[in-house]
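Morning F.,

Quick status update on the modeling queue. The single chain you submitted on Monday has been processed. Sequence for confirmation:
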Amino acid sequence: MFVSFFESVKYVGHLLPISFLRIFLGYYYLEQALQNYRGDFLTRPRIADQIAEWLPSSHAPNWFKIFASAQMIPNWQTVAFIIVGLEFAIAISYIIGYVVRPMALLGVLMCVTMLFLSGPGQEDFFKTFLAIHLILAWVGAGRCLGVDYYFFKRRRGIWW
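Structure tokens below.
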């Protein structure tokens, strides 16, 4: 498995720049998850305050606004744990290059949700991350400098 990690550069080296983007994004998500975990994100209702503040002016569909105000605001601690857990999962997946496509789809879901819940100053940020997650889901960038190449050689499929 260790040999196939370096062998991946030889056979799918054209994905090397996208792999660097994947690793950088994984590092960013790891920093965010650690910052949220060590800070007061899990203990104070910051996410509920953010949702309550920006939801009325959001471009989200009405069903999402109803769901967010009825389920996400009262259960803010569960939402905060889900966000931190997804950040950790995406970070580890992107850094080691394992199951990048499914994690990229989860990243797309998280970015769309955060796009609806965040203020106008962060829209461009989440749109950019949404595009990057879609590219990683399309290309499957774990096959270069990642563990996915080992599984791609043995079991070809859409997940690798």
